[in-house]
């Protein structure tokens, strides 16, 4: 299976996914695409020998469909079987996601369906949650809402801040996303639950 990974920033999830696709793994990374030309993940992808591309959303002010058309063309040139959103920070319209229904994944730093959208760690702290975590789901037209393919949980600790939570969660994201992709690429949609 050919996997394209979309990033916006450091790309630590992209690195984890790329490094998991070795040996008898049914998938290989074929493209890393960023909406931000300055994303640190682009250099990491090049170091890993993965083709990269940039579709800069700032070149399409007030024209989301032109941005998504360019995304679509750039993505399809790599002929991906699976698309992984990994720290990708642009909202995709129904028109775009519909083209990739059933083969686009996303990782979200909360225990969905709680805390869709942004600032998930602070919202969990503000709610006094004793548990936090991350979720991998299939991407559908509704934001952070598709079928859940995996979750990883961890305890909230006294004195936790949003930054501390985010930092402690990141390695769990890497483990979860890699485990989900391995299953998903083998055609198995059984959710992965990491305690
Ligand atoms: C991670 O918390 C991820 O869950 C969120 O973006 C953050 C950075 O991800 N979507 P990465 O290091 O760019 O993969």
Automatic annotation (TrEMBL):
A Pfam family assignment: Formyl_trans_N
An annotated Gene Ontology molecular function: phosphoribosylglycinamide formyltransferase activity
Active-site residue numbers: 108 (proton donor)
Residue ranges occupied by any Formyl transferase N-terminal domain in the UniProt entry: 1-181
Binding-site residues for (6R)-10-formyltetrahydrofolate, renumbered to this chain: 64, 89-92, 106
Pathway the protein contributes to: Purine metabolism; IMP biosynthesis via de novo pathway; N(2)-formyl-N(1)-(5-phospho-D-ribosyl)glycinamide from N(1)-(5-phospho-D-ribosyl)glycinamide (10-formyl THF route): step 1/1
CDD domains, A to Z: FMT_core_GART
Site feature Raises pKa of active site His, where: 144
EC number: 2.1.2.2
InterPro entries: Formyl_transf_N, Formyl_transf_N_sf, GART, GART_AS
Binding site residues for N(1)-(5-phospho-beta-D-ribosyl)glycinamide: 11-13
Reaction(s) this enzyme catalyzes, per UniProt: N(1)-(5-phospho-beta-D-ribosyl)glycinamide + (6R)-10-formyltetrahydrofolate = N(2)-formyl-N(1)-(5-phospho-beta-D-ribosyl)glycinamide + (6S)-5,6,7,8-tetrahydrofolate + H(+)
Keywords: Purine biosynthesis, Transferase
SUPFAM superfamilies listed in its UniProt record: Formyltransferase
Entry annotated with the keyword Transferase: yes
Keyword Transferase: yes
HAMAP family: PurN
Biological function: Catalyzes the transfer of a formyl group from 10-formyltetrahydrofolate to 5-phospho-ribosyl-glycinamide (GAR), producing 5-phospho-ribosyl-N-formylglycinamide (FGAR) and tetrahydrofolate.
Family note: Belongs to the GART family.
Name recorded for this polypeptide: Phosphoribosylglycinamide formyltransferase
